[in-house]
Amino acid sequence: MAAGARMVPFGGWEMPVQYTGIIEEHRATRSAAGIFDVSHMGEFEVEGPEALASIQALTTNDAAALAVGQVQYSVLCLPDGGIVDDLTVYRLGPERFMITVNAGNIDTDWAWVTEHGRGARWRDVSAETALIAVQGPRAEDLVARLADGDVAGIRYYRFAEGRVAGAPALISRTGYTGEDGFELYVGASDAERLWTALLAEGARDGAVPVGLGARDTLRLEMAYALYGNDIDQATNPLEAGLGWVVKFEKGDFIGRAALERARAAGLTRRLRGLAMTERAVPRHGYPVIKDGVATGTVTSGSYGPSVDKYIALAYVATPPRTSVRMWASRSAVRSSRPAWCARRSIPLA
Q: How far is it, in rounded angstroms, from Cα 322 to Cα 315?
């Protein structure tokens, strides 16, 4: 609040929705660096001889492919294929993993993983863990000046342990903006020190604090799904465009049979990117209309400051093929991965 943030309730937390303004913060992240306090996210650790088997049973991606120091995007599914949550999986050691889950789902996810975790030792470290993201073209230089190790040597979707601003940190080259950058996991007691140091050191880079508003527009420009808007227990990862993190060949996992049936039967809808042909906001819940008939629903929509368009994600009936034009209150469907989505994408590994 001392930084001038406008606070709103979010996932049981009081969170900054903006500091100077959503568009200004968005553009600063794209051109320089944005600093995000996302300590509301949840973190669970699992270890022991059954840790890998537990992760494999719970998630759709293949955690056995992870080397120590590697990160993976994945999904927790219900037996019917619905999405419990989307998450990242960190392989901390041969028999030790961490998963990062959405803030609003911490209690639900904790109950789910401990019930279905196949005897592994789980620990909820959310309350003792802070998470600060530094995103943008100047993020590497900024973090490197405060870190004690070779930050530049950390590859995308990899992490290393070190110190940043004197605080022990897990330095992860990941993010939710489409820009290069890092997510810094530190002890909760070190969060204020790290935040202050990043803002002070980042002033010469043009780095600014960024709130939830710009975080949303940044991820929407990349067509990154938001749990509760674009994905939830009523959607499955195949129709949400997340089939690339569903590895049927790895063996059994919760939801596999249902997803195999959905794949065999063919999808009835797909999450698509839309761009408005007029300057109007496509709001959550707006219908998508083709030839006068409702064929889908907008799940997320906003102005995209980097592309200077009003853009959205929506579930629409399948097909369309990529050449078919549709409308959501005068919006044209461009493709399943929109042309305006042109920055860093989540790797397939």
A: 14
